[in-house]
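Write out this protein's structure.
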Amino acid sequence: MPDTAAPQSPEPAPSAGDEYRPTGRTVPTRARERAAYDRETVHSILDEAYLCHLGFVRDGAPVVLPTLFGRLGERLYVHGSTGSRPLREAGGADPGLPVCLTVTHVDGLVLARSAFHHSINYRSVVVHGIARTVTDPKERRIALDAIVDHVVPGRSADSRPAGTKELAATAVIRLDLREVSAKIRTGGPNDEPEDLALPHWAGVLPLARGYTTPVPSVDLDPAIGVPDYLTAL
């Protein structure tokens, strides 16, 4: 999703240069060499994901919810029902809702000679911050279009915009990209030297995302063909 389509509200203060500033929460305790903080890497991982997991504390216990999201520049947007607990709390009397948002891509299954060294190749992003309710009507519409287009680029222009009642039933929260890190694993298994002669297959089983032929709705007018933005996928 391009950074040029920015919401009509002030952008958060950026970190120095083209990287997010590491913090105590974004520096991993293990495999620190896999961590990345540059914006290009973080944005590419976020933009390729369909689903995020939004974590917060409710009644003293952790809760993690899978949900769709969208990115515009240095902000992430999540939407849901106005009756949703986290979305209500993000707009309460307190200054927003502390959250942790994550996305993960699994790129391959790493099969080692030993059970201990089995792993996965992955790309992940973790975002810590304060989620706040979006109240400006113009920013809300931009955010909702961004969420739709995040799943299928170009889809918001090819669908009916939300009506007044639908907008009233929909809440949007915003999370600024400030305390952010990516973590990436690539390559083959890390077997112990003494295990290399064992008669067990070792290597990587790659995983790839793909699309099959679009299936039209049973009540779709036959004259409406598959749009270009879907065939492009």
